[in-house]
# Entry
Amino acid sequence: MIKKSEQLIIVKIAITLRLLLARNKSSSQSNKEKENLVTSYEKIAINSSSDLTKATVNNAFSGKKRSAMTTIVLIVEAMGYKLCDFAEEYDKITNEEVNSFTREYNKGEN
# Structure
């Protein structure tokens, strides 16, 4: 069973990853550059420098399971970000955002 403190971290990671992916999706770059932007779980898996699967990426974004730090780093880098970008967004996550995400997740479970 996952401890409450660990669950908080897992959810904050999922929220942060979703924010970074949303930033890529809403980027106002040229069409050619947009084609190269990583905007989906599948593109993240393909662009990672490892054998990440789409399922592994999905798990990290879902907030359901623990992800290894190596997986998080691979995902962040595959999206074109640095770990410091991830950390900056992670530190901004509020308790209300965590609670809202958790409510949505629990709603989907019922």
